[in-house]
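Below is a filled-in request sheet from our internal design queue. Each sheet records the structural input a requester submitted and the sequence that came back. We keep these sheets so that new team members can see what a complete request looks like end to end.

REQUESTER: design group, bay 2
PRIORITY: normal
MODE: inverse folding
CHAIN LENGTH: 268
BACKBONE (tokenized):
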């Protein structure tokens, strides 16, 4: 007998759901029959099939309140909230401004907390409660040089997940997906081209980066009745993880983030 997940009649909000990993997550909820609302800071020319799109800056609590109230007003309920919006440009911690770090932490930690709180206010009044799925990163559990604030924020998300699961049960389940490298429309640009991406993929135990819909499969499971006794969990979706750096020690000539101590061009 086959097992399927049917979320017909369920209302799902996916932040940052119009592109990248968020689009893959939204697609899988559409495939499961749910009513899917995506949001981002900017409008989209045309929402993905089966979804509707709304604008919201998740860092703005008033925006978040208006978003969730609008979803409930139009659809009568909110069953699942997926905190996917996030990310960070590359910047060494000492070089970036205080404002930069504040914005990164706001987007990746405070925004998800605002969405979760607004969703909980609705879900706790529903007879069958609801589910919150946070999209975290393997950066939460290992050093994240060049994106230090992002890694710290994701570590905060993982801690937040376990705390909210205890505070909000039994009405609302809260879980996290720890995402590894994933191929999106921007992957080649981010890593320096297709050949560099292929070299990176050779270091992943499963031999490739994830597809966005594979992250979506995990999100749908965590939001479904099949995960009815799963709360406070961190589910790894990283293809087996990153191999220890000592395996590549013979290929490394210097610490990759060591400061430049060259005296070339210095005054005598």
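RETURNED SEQUENCE:
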């Amino acid at each position: 007998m086959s097992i399927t997940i049917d979320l017909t009649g369920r209302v799902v909000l996916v932040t940052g759901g119009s592109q990248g990993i968020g689009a893959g997550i939204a697609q899988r909820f559409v495939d499961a029959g749910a009513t899917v609302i995506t949001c981002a800071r900017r409008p989209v020319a045309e929402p993905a099939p089966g979804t509707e799109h709304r604008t919201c800056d998740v860092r703005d609590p008033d925006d978040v309140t208006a978003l969730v109230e609008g979803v409930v007003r139009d659809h009568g309920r909110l069953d699942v909230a997926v905190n996917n919006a996030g990310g960070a440009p590359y910047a060494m911690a000492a070089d970036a401004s205080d404002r930069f770090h504040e914005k990164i932490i706001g987007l990746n930690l405070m925004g998800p907390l605002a969405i979760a709180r607004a969703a909980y206010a609705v879900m706790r009044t529903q007879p069958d409660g609801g589910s919150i799925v946070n999209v975290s990163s393997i950066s939460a559990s290992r050093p994240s040089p060049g994106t230090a604030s992002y890694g710290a924020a994701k570590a905060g998300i993982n801690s937040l997940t376990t705390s909210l699961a205890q505070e909000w049960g039994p009405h609302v389940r809260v879980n996290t997906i720890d995402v590894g490298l994933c191929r999106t429309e921007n992957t080649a640009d981010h890593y320096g081209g297709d050949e560099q991406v292929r070299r990176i993929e050779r270091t992943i135990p499963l031999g490739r980066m994830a597809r966005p819909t594979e992250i979506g499969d995990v999100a749908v499971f965590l939001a479904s009745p099949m995960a009815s006794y799963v709360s406070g969990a961190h589910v790894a979706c990283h293809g087996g993880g990153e191999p220890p750096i000592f395996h590549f020690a013979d290929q490394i000539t210097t610490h990759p983030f060591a400061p430049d101590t060259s005296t070339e061009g210095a005054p005598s």
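SHEET NOTES:
- The chain is about 35% helix and 15% strand.
- Residues 11-241 form a domain with the Rossmann fold fold (CATH 3.40.50.720).
FILED BY: M.R.
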